[in-house]
User: What shape does this take?
Amino acid sequence: METLWRAADQEHVRRLMRERGLEKPRPPMRFPREFLDHDQGIGAFNNPEEGQEFMLGFNHVLSGLHKQGDGLSDLERDALRHFMTNRCASPAFVHRMVREHGGASLLETFHLRDLPPDQALTFLLRCHKGRFYRNHYPSLSLVQGGES
Assistant: This one.
């Protein structure tokens, strides 16, 4: 990432660093070496409601989505199944990928190709990512105050 920042317009980089309070031309992120050395692609998504989401083995998800349901390999089917059933990938991440690459391969993976695509995707998301649709309540601790 630092290489991309070095190649960019330096005035723009300085302005961004000032605005974001960065000391170096990269975000202050630390990842384990195994994560950084992963050679099957890393999917990254910034979800404003849930935070940052990362997924290893993302090349198989992308190649599966690009095939639009035709001729999916076992690795691609497994990756797509994992992408949909993984508790950590939000519906917003799934919607983004479907919007950019189409959802036919997801529907094929779950044998829902004969249903209307929007209805089938909604079904899959509600089944596998239902926790994202439930009400979220803030953590609350009640502390009884002492006498002063």
About this structure: The two ends are 55 Å apart (CA to CA). The mean pLDDT is 83.
